[in-house]
């Protein structure tokens, strides 16, 4: 037995004896039931036979796992081509949100990828949404969500060369800040590098182990060069916490927990750093009302965008917007 497997066995034995076992094993309204069988007592992962004991233990302790060469070059090239078509306005996608860096003046806008820093909500684009249904992705997602899987949030990030104002940075944040569904442990992000990603072009930076904490207050950081729309950041996290820079090759994928504090640095190259991602949730998850919580600010912002874009009344809620965007990709749509 490997050292990691031995540690995993010790951890399981500890959980079985722990007085906090009920808190770890029970999600009263999630529809997800843990059993006493080996090794289902772990909090963040399921034993589907795919993850090794070493990988499960690593995710339990760190909140992320890096899988190399998971998405083919052909698929990535197809996603890139469709993104470029969208940027050239050759295709219109219902519900798509097109974003650009705050440093790009409106007068500079041209129908080209240089003007677009990110697209969100591409669930109505069949070519891009194919990423969310890739069997090799879903096999890993099931390890974190269980068999009934919803694709909830889609993005293709096109981090631009920094214009000198450091606006290409993404502040440290927790993705759960944007989500009005729970439990957090049944949500996972798949983030795939569409080219070589390193510290020079702004790779992901994660704070290992922060997924075991709680959702923190978020707001716009006070950056001199400005902050991109909806790029909220965590307030009050420990800047001395150990960091990991996730340098990746084209096709590599990282899966991470929605409470993991993460962000990305400046793109100090002349090229565009592309990545495609999807946040998945168990279809057994449930929606919450964020009124009276630290998430009220993001709900207000989302409502303002929805009202302006779709002429929807003020009665819309954050959970309404997620119910519209979610798509079943495996199993049965039981709750979400």
UniProtKB/TrEMBL annotation:
GO molecular function, one term: metal ion binding
Enzyme class, UniProt record, top EC level: oxidoreductase
Gene Ontology cellular-component terms listed: peroxisome
Pathway: Lipid metabolism; fatty acid metabolism
Keyword terms, alphabetized: Dioxygenase, Iron, Metal-binding, Oxidoreductase, Vitamin C
One Pfam family in the UniProt entry: PhyH
Known cofactor(s): Fe cation; ATP; L-ascorbate
Oxidoreductase found in the keyword field: yes
BP GO annotations: fatty acid alpha-oxidation
Entry EC number(s): 1.14.11.18
Keyword Oxidoreductase included in the entry's annotation: yes
InterPro entries named in the record: PhyH (IPR047128), Phytyl_CoA_dOase-like (IPR008775)
Catalytic activity: 3-methylnonanoyl-CoA + 2-oxoglutarate + O2 = 2-hydroxy-3-methylnonanoyl-CoA + succinate + CO2; 3-methylhexadecanoyl-CoA + 2-oxoglutarate + O2 = 2-hydroxy-3-methylhexadecanoyl-CoA + succinate + CO2; 3-methylbutanoyl-CoA + 2-oxoglutarate + O2 = 2-hydroxy-3-methylbutanoyl-CoA + succinate + CO2; heptadecanoyl-CoA + 2-oxoglutarate + O2 = 2-hydroxyheptadecanoyl-CoA + succinate + CO2
Family: Belongs to the PhyH family.
Entry-linked PANTHER family: PHYTANOYL-COA ALPHA-HYDROXYLASE (PTHR21308), PHYTANOYL-COA DIOXYGENASE, PEROXISOMAL (PTHR21308:SF1)
Protein name: Phytanoyl-CoA dioxygenase, peroxisomal
Organism: Channa argus
Lineage, highest ranks first: Eukaryota, Metazoa, Chordata, Craniata, Vertebrata
